[in-house]
Specification:
Blueprint: E1 4-7, E2 11-13, E3 18-24, E4 33-39, E5 46-51, E6 58-59, E7 67-72, E8 77-82, E9 91-98, E10 114-115, E11 119-124
Parallel strand pairs: 2-11
Antiparallel strand pairs: 1-3, 3-8, 4-5, 4-9, 5-6, 7-8, 9-10, 9-11
């Protein structure tokens, strides 16, 4: 079965940086729609950064200019570089993938078929 596993989450001071990584059992991640979401339980998770198979990567307004999503083909991972972290970035971060998604609904969690278990990011002021 498909497995996704996030890593890299930890506690960090405001203004610091973290790099999250998502390892997947799926082959050829360039052929997948992939993205990062975050959640503050018990509230719904929200889209953070998305990497479609084609076209530009997209970001939520709250992280644009600070976060960068990328694929590492050699390691078969999806990464999220997070700079200038703020306390409001504190959340559980999830990796997601799917063979295809509705291009008009890329930020909608239900569009993604496979999910990891999440990694905790805590940013203190």
């Amino acid at each position: 079965q498909v497995k996704l596993e996030e890593s890299g989450g930890r506690s960090v001071q405001s203004g610091g940086s973290l790099r999250l990584s998502c390892a997947t059992s799926q082959h050829f991640i360039n052929n997948l729609c992939m993205g990062w979401y975050r959640e503050v339980p018990p509230f719904a998770r929200e889209g953070v950064a998305l990497a479609p198979r084609l076209g530009l990567n997209t970001y939520s307004d709250s992280v644009k200019g600070r976060f960068t999503i990328s694929r590492d083909n050699a390691r078969n991972t999806l990464d999220l570089q997070m700079n200038s972290l703020k306390p409001e970035d504190t959340a559980i971060y999830y990796c997601a993938s799917s063979e295809s998604v509705d291009s008009t609904r890329r930020f909608v969690p239900s569009e993604y078929k496979y999910w990891g278990q999440g990694t905790q990011v805590s940013v203190s002021s």
